[in-house]
Amino acid sequence: MNTIIERAKDDKFVLIAEIGVNYYDIAKKMQISVMEAAKLMVKEAKKAGIHAVKFQTYKAETLAAKESPSYWDTNEEATTSQFELFKKFDSFTYEDYKEIAQYCNDLGIEFLSTAFDIESADYLYDLMNVYKISSSDLNNIPFVEYQAKKGKPILLSVGAANVEEIDQTISTIREHNDQSIVLMHCVLEYPTPCSHANLNKIVSLKNRYPDVIIGYSDHTKPDVDADIVKTAFNLGANVVEKHFTLDKTLPGNDHYHAMDPSDAKKIVQGIEFIQKIRGSYEINYLESELTSRQNARRSLVAAYSIKKGQIITNEMLTFKRPGTGISPADIKNVIGKVAVMDISEDSILQYEMIKE
User: Fold this and answer.
1) pLDDT number for residue 259
2) Which of 27, 172, 293, 310 has a 20 to 30 A CA-CA distance from 278?
3) Rounded to whole angstroms, how far apart are CA atoms 45 and 19?
């Protein structure tokens, strides 16, 4: 089940719930196991209409040095060491992710996880259809190359990157991989103030990279009407990834800028409505307009009685609804023709009434 790529290629919206490692805090709050919490979050995501769930797979020792300062808002997440933060949430093993992946498959929601080291990139291969490369690894060219060689579609976040870096990373992927790439606009700021969302960049990415799918990885706090995600979609981001929690009031980690099931439902329903009203790119009238097109338009109408054998002049004609007769656009085909029958005043002209 490759929901993400199939839907995106079909120009359909895809919402990915970035569960990340938020299930650890949910487990603690609800006094259940981390596996039970992870499955509960997957279940709630599915119920909310979300199309895929994404986790994060790492070991603190392979991800961050002991001296690695925070880059997030410490008013929201007080831990000031990356290593210390990641160490809290790295207990899951291959067998755990295998169990989660199977659970997702049973529920009918796509599973994926961002690999942050070689070991996880290897063991996740059989569990997911796409690889996700984090913004933080965009310039980690050896690791990008390693994942590209796996031969699967790639979601690539481009937060905090310049155009030369994006070009280089895409080029690296393409040297080894001809599968779909989803380029995810992203602002690497936790949380991202709404004024920093910089959504017009989606248009620039779409124009510069016409051969890839464009998406958006969102770190803003959910807004009341989901306008940020809706705008991103309208600008061309078919795939949207947003952090997901069951309790936005939980301190720390990724709860404070995450959507909850209610937010997710609002997003999915809002995008469904947008897709409904956007319609087709074809420049033509709708089938539903046919009756109006015929009856609200005008026809050539006899301004007064026209006798059989008379040559029709401009003065004999006027324009009235409905448009079931000769169109006013064709008046030149009527003037100078001969009436082949008596035409009473206010009659709608038809071609069988005239001849050369």
Assistant:
1) 98
2) 293
3) 9
**From CA 149, how far away is CA 138, in angstroms rounded?**
15
Average pLDDT over residues 259-279: 96
Please state the CATH superfamily assignment of the domain spanning residues 3-278 in this structure. Answer: Aldolase class I (3.20.20.70)
Exposed/middle/buried for residue 312 (C-beta within 10 Å: 0-12, 13-18, 19+)? buried
CATH topology for 297-355 is Type Iii Antifreeze Protein Isoform Hplc 12 (3.90.1210)
Q: Residue 79: pLDDT above 80?
A: no
| Paired tokens of 23 | 């299930």
Q: Residue type at 305? A: S
**DSSP-derived pairing of the beta strands 317-320 and 299-302:** antiparallel
> pLDDT tens across 282-320, in order?
999 999 999 999 999 999 999 999 999 999 999 999 999
To which H or E segment does residue 274 belong?
Answer: helix 261-278
Q: Show the tokens assigned to 298.
A: 């005008």
Question: What is the Cα–Cα distance from 342 to 310, expressed in whole angstroms?
Answer: 9
Tokens describing residue 318: 């006027």
Predicted confidence at residue 96, as pLDDT, reads 95
Extents of the domains making up the chain: 3-278, 297-355
Q: Three-class SS of residue 306? A: strand
d(CA 93, CA 240): 27
**In Å, how far are 274, 324, 353 from 291, measured between CA atoms?**
26, 10, 24
**Per the structure block, which two tokens stand in for 117?**
């080291």
pLDDT surpassing 80 at residue 52 = yes
Please report, as a single letter, which amino acid is at residue 151: G
**In whole angstroms, what is the distance from residue 234 CA to residue 73 CA?**
29
Q: Which residues contact 20 (CB under 8 A, 6 or more apart)?
A: 54, 55, 56, 243, 244, 253, 254
Average pLDDT, integer, range 28-50: 98
